[in-house]
Write a structure and sequence with these properties.
- This is DUF5723 domain-containing protein.
- The chain has one domain: Porin (Beta Barrel), CATH 2.40.160.
- The strands form three sheets. A twelve-stranded antiparallel barrel has the order 1-2-4-7-8-10-11-13-14-17-18-20. Strands 12-15-16 form a three-stranded antiparallel sheet, with no helix packed on it. Strands 6-9 form a two-stranded antiparallel ribbon.
- It has strands spanning 2-12, 22-32, 34-38, 43-58, 70-71, 79-80, 84-97, 103-114, 119-120, 146-156, 163-173, 181-182, 186-196, 204-214, 218-219, 222-223, 229-241, 245-252, 255-258, 270-283.
- The chain has 290 residues and is mainly beta.
- It is built from no helices and 20 strands.
- 0% of the residues lie in helices and 57% in strands.
Length: 290
C-alpha cells in the first residue's frame, strides 16, 4: 500500500478579461493499494488502483471562471467527480532473479491502464474558439485506455550502496477518451541507490533521480497548451523493517525544465513550486513454503 501527497504552489499572470494575477495551491492526495500474484517462478501479475482527490485552494479574492476552491469529489460543468483514478494491470517476466542473494534482478513487463471515473468531459481551454465559460482543469484520470511497457534492473551487492538500479516505463494511449481527449505519451526513467545502516531495523537511506517526459496532448485533435513537458525529480528516502513489513518514506522535489505542472490557457508567464511526500507499506507474505 502506498500513499502520497503532492502540493503545487502556483502563480500565473493576468489572463484575458481577468486583469489580476492568479495563484493558488493544488494538492493531490492518493492511496494506492497494490496486489502481486505469482503465476509461476518467472511470471507475475500486478494490479494497483488509485483512490484519492485533488483539491484547489484559490488564493485570490477576485472571482475567476478558471479557478476556485473545489475538489475532484464534486461534479462541475465539464467534470465528473469521483475518488477513483486510473488502475493498472501489469504482467512481468523475470529474466534474471537473484532473490535474496547477491546479484541482478531484471524483468520486463507490459500492461494496461484502465481509466477511472474522475474525468474531464470537455476541453477546458476552449480551443475550438467557443466563448469561455466556468470550467475545471484537473481530474484524477485522463479517461483514456493506455498501454504500458516497462523494464527494471537492480543489483544487490555486499557493500554500500547495497542496491543499485532503476526502471524505464512508457505509457501510450490507445485512443482518445470518449470525451475527445488524447493524453500524452509519457516516458519515465528512474535511478536509485540504497545505503544500508545495518541496525536493528535493517534500515536504509535511499537517494534517487527521476526523468519524466510527456508528449503533446490534444483535445478534439487540437494541441493542448503546455502539455509537452520535461521534469527532473531528485528524491531522498528512508526505509525500515517492522514485524508486519517494510515501511518507506520518500520526499521528491520535481523541477520543471519545460512545460507546466498546472494547466493554463496559453503561453503566459507562470511559476510553480512542487513537493511530493510518499509513504509505502509492503506487507510480509503470510504464505509459508511447504
Amino acid at each position: 500500500v502506498q500513499s502520497s501527497i503532492t502540493t503545487i504552489d502556483w502563480w500565473h499572470e493576468a489572463l484575458g478579461t481577468e486583469q489580476f494575477e492568479h495563484s493558488g495551491l493544488l494538492n493531490t492526495y492518493l492511496l494506492q493499494p497494490k496486489l502481486v500474484y505469482g503465476i509461476s517462478q518467472k511470471l507475475n501479475l500486478a494490479f494497483n488502483v488509485n483512490f484519492g482527490l485533488r483539491q484547489m485552494h484559490w488564493n485570490v479574492s477576485d472571482e475567476s471562471i478558471h479557478h476556485r476552491d473545489e475538489t475532484t469529489l464534486s461534479n462541475f460543468r465539464n467534470a465528473i467527480g469521483s475518488i477513483l483514478g486510473d488502475s493498472k494491470i501489469i504482467v512481468r517476466y523475470l529474466i534474471n532473479e537473484a532473490g535474496s542473494e547477491l546479484g541482478k534482478r531484471f524483468y520486463l513487463g507490459t500492461g494496461l491502464v484502465i481509466p477511472g471515473s474522475s474525468v474531464l468531459t470537455s476541453d477546458p481551454f476552449f480551443l475550438d474558439g467557443e466563448l469561455f465559460k466556468s470550467h475545471r482543469h484537473f481530474s484524477l484520470s485522463s479517461g483514456a485506455y493506455k498501454g504500458i511497457i516497462e523494464g527494471q534492473l537492480f543489483v544487490k551487492r555486499n557493500i554500500n550502496p547495497v542496491f543499485l538500479g532503476g526502471f524505464i516505463i512508457v505509457e501510450h494511449p490507445f485512443s482518445k477518451s470518449k470525451y475527445g481527449y488524447l493524453p500524452s505519451t509519457m516516458g519515465t526513467i528512474s535511478l536509485s541507490a540504497s545505503f544500508m545502516r545495518y541496525d536493528q531495523l535493517m534500515s536504509s537511506y535511499d537517494i534517487g533521480i527521476m526523468l519524466a517526459y510527456s508528449s503533446m496532448a490534444k483535445w478534439n485533435d487540437i494541441s493542448e497548451p503546455n502539455s509537452e513537458s520535461f521534469a527532473i525529480s531528485p528524491s531522498i528516502g528512508y526505509l525500515f523493517n517492522t514485524n508486519f513489513g517494510a515501511v518507506s518514506i520518500n520526499i521528491q522535489k520535481p523541477l520543471m525544465i519545460f512545460g507546466a505542472f498546472v494547466d493554463n490557457e496559453g503561453d503566459i508567464d507562470q511559476q510553480s513550486n512542487v513537493w511530493q511526500i510518499s509513504l509505502a507499506l509492503r506487507l510480509k507474505s503470510q504464505i509459508k513454503e511447504k
